[in-house]
TrEMBL record:
<protein>
    <submittedName>
        <fullName>TECTA protein</fullName>
    </submittedName>
</protein>
<dbReference type="InterPro" id="IPR051495">
    <property type="entry name" value="Epithelial_Barrier/Signaling"/>
</dbReference>
<feature type="domain" description="NIDO">
    <location>
        <begin position="78"/>
        <end position="238"/>
    </location>
</feature>
<feature type="region of interest" description="Disordered">
    <location>
        <begin position="1"/>
        <end position="24"/>
    </location>
</feature>
<dbReference type="GO" id="GO:0007160">
    <property type="term" value="P:cell-matrix adhesion"/>
</dbReference>
<dbReference type="Pfam" id="PF06119">
    <property type="entry name" value="NIDO"/>
</dbReference>
<dbReference type="InterPro" id="IPR003886">
    <property type="entry name" value="NIDO_dom"/>
</dbReference>
């Protein structure tokens, strides 16, 4: 099934949960293993309710600015949009050295990067589970996950997408019932949903194809490793696109 490759998450896995707060964030999380992102090493991160993992400082903004950003704040954005977990859903996160999970991650990354065999020694798993959008009057929810992992030398991010049902909160003129439409439908307006990476230096960034357009709702069918709903990147010096440059599959209009 699409998205079935999400790694285990939830309270039974020892996860912590974010507060139920619109535009909220976790407390500062001190990493037991420093994480290198775009050539800089970080020891603190935040899991932000609006679909962003940021280093060193939180990101509460619900309307994403187009990448690249020169604000000095580096972050991973599995799905930056106007999440409201007060209305529905939970946000889980944990650091782990669980052998079974690390073995699964190691196997997967070695499959995608066969020239560089990888044995994970640590991972950070953040999961947004059926989270609602601001102003929602429906039961729609998005489920997606970001995994940061390393062997202490090489650093990867895995983005998993199980179910994406909405793109836009009501504060960005999205339809309260459908969670679709909104500001991004207007030419020259800022995007209201985005997936990718931003270094904070106005130069280094990556947008997953479909970001800033309505097509992002199909991200569960897209991939750069030929596994629908999964994107994998090496991020210490950002060689992630060396896996396979995503090509458009003309049979179904999806990036694979």
């Amino acid at each position: 099934p699409t998205g079935s490759q999400l790694y285990p998450y939830g309270l039974d896995q020892g996860d912590e949960t974010n507060p139920k707060h619109d535009d909220g964030t976790s407390e500062a999380i001190t990493l037991s293993v420093p994480f290198t992102f775009y050539g800089k090493t970080h020891q603190t991160l935040f899991v932000n309710n609006n679909g962003v993992i940021s280093f060193d400082e939180p990101v509460r903004q619900y309307t994403p600015d187009p990448f690249p950003l020169a604000d000095g704040c580096p972050f991973v954005a599995p799905y930056w949009a106007d999440v409201d977990n007060v209305l529905g859903g939970d946000i889980f996160h944990r650091q782990t050295t669980d052998r079974a999970l690390l073995a699964d991650i190691s196997r997967d990354i070695t499959q995608y990067f066969p020239k560089s065999p990888f044995t994970a020694t640590w991972a950070f798993v953040a999961t947004w589970d059926h989270v609602a959008y601001y102003g929602s009057t429906s039961q729609k929810g998005n489920t997606f996950q970001a995994v940061l992992t390393t062997d202490s030398k090489i650093f990867f991010v895995i983005l998993n997408y199980r179910d994406i049902q909405w793109t836009t909160g009501a504060a960005s003129d999205g339809d309260a019932e459908t969670g679709l439409g909104g500001t991004a439908a207007h030419v020259d307006s800022p995007p209201i949903f985005q997936a990718g990476f931003n270094s904070g230096d106005d130069t280094n960034f990556y947008n997953i194809p479909g970001s800033q357009t309505d097509a992002i709702i199909n991200i569960t069918a897209t991939s750069n490793v030929k596994i629908p709903g999964r994107w994998v990147f090496r991020v210490d010096d950002f060689q992630g696109t060396d896996v396979d440059s995503p090509q458009l599959n003309n049979d179904n209009g999806c990036w694979l």
